[in-house]
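Notes for week 9. Today we move from apo structures to complexes. The key idea is that a small molecule is not decoration. When we ask for a structure prediction with S-adenosylmethionine present, the ligand SMILES becomes part of the input, just like the chain. The input block below holds both the sequence and the ligand string. Read it once before you look at the output, and try to guess where the molecule might sit.
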Amino acid sequence: MMAQASPWYVHALQRTTAAEPLCVPARMEWTSRPGTGPGAEILGPDLRRKRLLELGCGPGHNAAHLATRYGAQVTGVDLVGLQVRRARSYYGRLNNLTFVAGHALHYLQASNEHFDAIYSVFGAIGLVTPELLLPAIVQHLRLGGTLASSVPHPQRGGRRPSTDDRPSRDYVTLPDRTRLPIARWEYDADRWEKHLGRAGLQLTSAQTSHDARHGRWPTTLLIIARKL
Ligand SMILES: C[S@@+](CC[C@H](N)C(=O)[O-])C[C@H]1O[C@@H](n2cnc3c(N)ncnc32)[C@H](O)[C@@H]1O
């Protein structure tokens, strides 16, 4: 039965059974190495009452951080209802935080809202066709608003970034180490810049981070862009 379930559902199921602490993190984590890299400031200088949208929020830890430490109005969307139920059970008491189950693209297509920043932390950006997702994001960002997304670095472990716009085969690695295949758009910063530009976004920064545990290869690519 598991072999037929969506990789992200199985991922959620295994994460739910793993015992994890139930507190709002003290930092916003953009990289695979907690405690390193930038924090929430990349989303804008003053986040109080700002409207933020997270695409692929998982159990909602980063959204909860932004709502509690910064007083932002945050919506988190995740494909898997189990993740959303878990996020609500952790953080649903916060009235400036909303969790929605659904595909990131469908959520955007059905929404009339505008956001000051839209972000993804190893979430939906990179897992959904950029040609469709980026224009949908732009429609819901206010002018000058920020898009920030961290993705597994396209050169992690010695891989090569895509040489065209198509997705590559990647895997979701579960806590029990089994790997389930998924499609991922493995773009380098130049290819992201091209797609962002076509959608009406200007790349403002592309940061690569490393993790000594993974040798000399980069681990995370953090893309920051602004709506023109
Ligand atoms: C690697 S997890 C990251 C979760 C969270 N951002 C974090 O940092 O803990 C990726 C998440 O993206 C969600 N996801 C995958 N495809 C999605 C899509 N098309 N729309 C919305 N969420 C999606 C998965 O269900 C999963 O919770």
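The mean pLDDT is 93.
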